[in-house]
Specification:
The chain has 141 residues and is α/β, with parallel strands linked by helices. The protein is built from 6 helices and 5 strands. The longest helix has 13 residues, at 14-26.
């Protein structure tokens, strides 16, 4: 059963954590819930949608009962949130295999290009209630 407004992200990925901060900065309504793939709920959501939570190849965005991944998730989230990324919405006109080809290359190399954090991304206290994080990170808060 899919919930709406869920952003499943890799909490150890610097690029993914920056994307979460982007959403928090540019969202017009605070209705996106962030779920780290390292959490129990995140692992379950990933597995249900064919993603290995120990080696994720994509993030997921759930909206209107539809689960989107890869470049479709990027465009759906950018459309909802707005901000500077909206300038690139014209790229959605490219065929999905082309978009996903570039998405996959970036996703596969994200740790090498942007880095990997030892601990899961920990949000600011004022937005923490919108996050589902692994037990270890929650206990350190």
């Amino acid at each position: 059963m899919a919930e709406d407004g869920i952003y499943l992200f890799d909490g150890h990925c610097v690029l993914c954590s920056r994307a979460v901060r982007y959403v928090l900065k540019y969202e017009t309504a605070p209705d996106v819930r962030f779920v780290a793939i390292q959490s129990e709920e995140g692992r379950r959501l990933a597995k249900t949608n064919g993603i290995d939570p120990d080696a994720p190849h994509s993030f997921l965005y759930v909206e209107d009962g539809v689960v989107r991944e890869r470049s479709d998730a990027v465009f759906a989230l950018a459309r909802k949130v707005g901000g500077p990324l909206r300038r690139f919405m014209f790229l959605k006109g490219l065929p999905r295999p082309v978009r996903d080809f570039f998405y996959d290359r970036l996703a596969r190399n994200r740790y090498a290009l942007f880095g990997r954090m030892k601990e899961c991304y920990l949000p600011a206290p004022e937005v923490r209630d919108r996050f589902t994080l692994p037990e270890i990170s929650e206990n350190k808060a």
